[in-house]
Amino acid sequence: MVQNKGRKKKPKIIHSSSSEETHRIGIEIGKTLSIPGVVLLRGTLGMGKTTLTRGIAEGLGCADTDCVCSPSFTLVNIYRGRCPIYHVDLYRLSGARDIYSIGIDDFIGRNGVTIVEWSERLIEIFPDAVEIDITDAGGDSRILNCCQRRL
After folding, report:
1. Hey, how many other C-beta atoms are within 10 angstroms of the C-beta on 57?
2. Is position 28 within any domain?
3. Tens digit of pLDDT for each residue in 108-148?
4. DSSP letter assigned to residue 11
5. Beta bridge mates, 40
6. Which of 16, 82, 83, 93 is the most buried (most CB within 10 A)?
């Protein structure tokens, strides 16, 4: 974990017109991720963060994407693909003490892919993290603003 800001590569804007399309976008993202890797997701409730995560998990080789669900109450779900996939939800946590009490620093950016929902609650910057902001574009449409941080 690094505490300087780093530089972001030029963002890529992706438009999705449905949850199915958001899932397909996630598959493509998952296929191209470096391992170990970190994906930082931001967006308000109902924007499709878990749908995108389901697609990313599929792109990473997770055979049973029906098991991919929001870890709002469990805080961390682990799925199997071609590497361990850690799905973290920080929505119910506040402050560094809460966040680090779940052991996130034991796995984030280390031996698999970590996907973090509500990542704006993190303090640290992770080298080479893929950052995705999801915003409402009306109806089921979403805009995904994707960039990768470079140090």
Report:
1. 26
2. yes
3. 888 899 999 999 888 777 778 999 999 999 999 999 999 98
4. P
5. 116, 131
6. 16
What would the pLDDT profile of 1-53 be if each residue is shown by its tens digit? 434 455 556 789 999 999 999 999 999 999 999 999 999 999 999 999 999 99
CATH number at residue 122: 3.40.50.300
User: Structural domain of residue 114, as residue ranges?
Assistant: 7-150
- Per DSSP, the three-state class of 119 is helix
Task: Identify whether 123 is part of a domain.
Answer: yes
Return the ∠ at Cα 47 (arms to 5 and 118), rounded to 5°: 35
Is residue 1 situated within a structural domain? no
Beta bridge partners of 148: 130
Checking phi first, is residue 19 left (phi over 0); if not, alpha (psi -120 to 50) or beta?
alpha
- Let me know if residue 16 belongs to a domain: yes
Place of tokens 């052991």: 103
Q: What is the residue-wise DSSP string for 52-69?
A: HHHHHHHHTT-S-GGG--
CA nearest neighbour of 86 among 133, 129, 39, 41: 39
Q: How far apart are CA 5 and CA 7, in angstroms?
A: 7
Pull the structure tokens for residue 13.
Answer: 């804007």
- Into how many domains does the chain fold? 1
Handedness of CA 116, 119, 124, 130 (dihedral sign): positive
